[in-house]
């Protein structure tokens, strides 16, 4: 029976705790410029029930954890697409998003999207029709389609 | 506070709900458990010339300055949160245990969150059990250092609230009104804690607290308006003696009756009004909060407190600066000592000796550095000015010459925040 109980940790940072203690001060700083990221597409698998999403719906799903039956996915903080996505969606930088997510989790109100690196995220999109992710619009994987686009500031 | 606040009724209700949920899950699916946590390791140095201890919360009784040079306890904590999305539709359970310094300077665990939640829709949440005291825009994340720029929740607004949680129920409704997202919340509950205060070791009881708040956000803006009413009793051996002495003195010196009321041992009607406004549009963070507390006695101080903070992010660094004021809104001036009757003299002397305030102005400068893997490093400097002759600010264990100190007090803090 207990095997049906699922355990989750909201971020992957616990797994890296010991490593983090050693590397926290010299880790992978976000080096790439988010402003240099082109259009960002919110993508789903071709057979997803989501047809189009408004900006408010994307905000509700990725920022407020109003996910319904879907599973939003995050890229790592080191990927400039993530910083650009949240800056365009919510006008919030890395520090602000960390604080906001912290509030969401520790009020019991929700949890952040699952974080996957790019290959794992593309694999999850291919395997899960409820997955929702964001990717550079210029390079969408086969079998996926865009349901919203966030353009860079002019 | 000995570990946990004492009111058990709603906790028993929450526990009963947990038990009801588990068997009904049957053999099929026990839902999903999620573990989250946060921690802060902080070192604080307060330069009080050995005349007082700096406190990060009103229930704390020792700290850096007099009891010890460096304090590692008052701003440090470790918390684990267990969330269970039960197999019953719409039901979840959340428990959060935080290990932190208590009112007796002991590091002990307490449960600030322990509730069963029912959310039949995304926009309706009912929580039964224990949840944080609804006092201020950041009340639910008061102890989560990672969730803000500063080392600690702003003292002006959060220091005067010694209670950490409430046992009862709250209902949240979230609506969209045009472009506004509005979270309306009504709460009811009770709480009781042991508290070391300026008048001795007290038991503070909050009865029938009713709270209403509105949290409105649109884009970069967030506004908060809240209020609560409660019947509050604050009793210690010292205040009982003072009340008895003043009541006795009133028989021969009638003005002492009004003074006695300030330390009465019954429940007193207390109001608090909270206001908050936040603007977050990278790279700027601006936030201000204010509270006004209305109380008929000096056991719960009537006061108006506010702060404002501005931060500007440069990559992973966010320097910030803040100003804050705590102002008691009542007569804390010494009462004239009559020549007679003789019985009233010691009672009024004792009354005058009890009149201490928190009146102070705080100037703050600091920086938050966001590291990888859920860490943030902070450095903060606070300059405390005591603004009344009988003010002790947020300090405890004061020496005789500390009240109303004319020179500012400098407090330095280094903190490492972590969350997973």
Report on this structure:
The complex is a heterodimer of chains A (154) and B (420). Chain A is α/β, with parallel strands linked by helices. Chain A has a single domain, classed as Periplasmic binding protein-like II (D-Maltodextrin-Binding Protein, domain 2), CATH 3.40.190.10. Helices cover 32% and strands 19% of the residues of chain A. Chain B is mainly β and 420 residues long. Chain B has one domain: Porin, CATH 2.40.160. Chain B is 12% helix and 50% strand. In chain B, the strands form 2 sheets. Chain B has a 16-stranded antiparallel barrel. The interface between A and B is large, with 43 and 53 residues.
The total count of helices of chain B amounts to 5
* Class from helix and strand fractions of chain B: mainly beta
For this structure, the CATH topology of chain A is: D-Maltodextrin-Binding Protein, domain 2
Q: Fill in the CATH topology of chain B.
A: Porin
CATH architecture of chain A: 3-Layer(aba) Sandwich
Which structural class is indicated by helix and strand composition of chain A?
A: alpha/beta
What distance lies between the first and last C-alpha atoms of chain B, to the nearest angstrom?
28 Å
Given as residue ranges, the uncertain stretches of chain B (5+ residues, pLDDT < 50) are 1-7, 23-27
Mean pLDDT of chain B: 91
Rg of chain B, Cα atoms, Å? 23 Å
Oligomer: heterodimer
Estimate the strand proportion of chain A.
15-25%
Keywords:
A: alpha/beta, D-Maltodextrin-Binding Protein, domain 2, 6 strands, 19% strand, B: 420 residues, Porin, 16-stranded antiparallel beta barrel, two-stranded antiparallel ribbon, 5 helices, 50% strand, globular
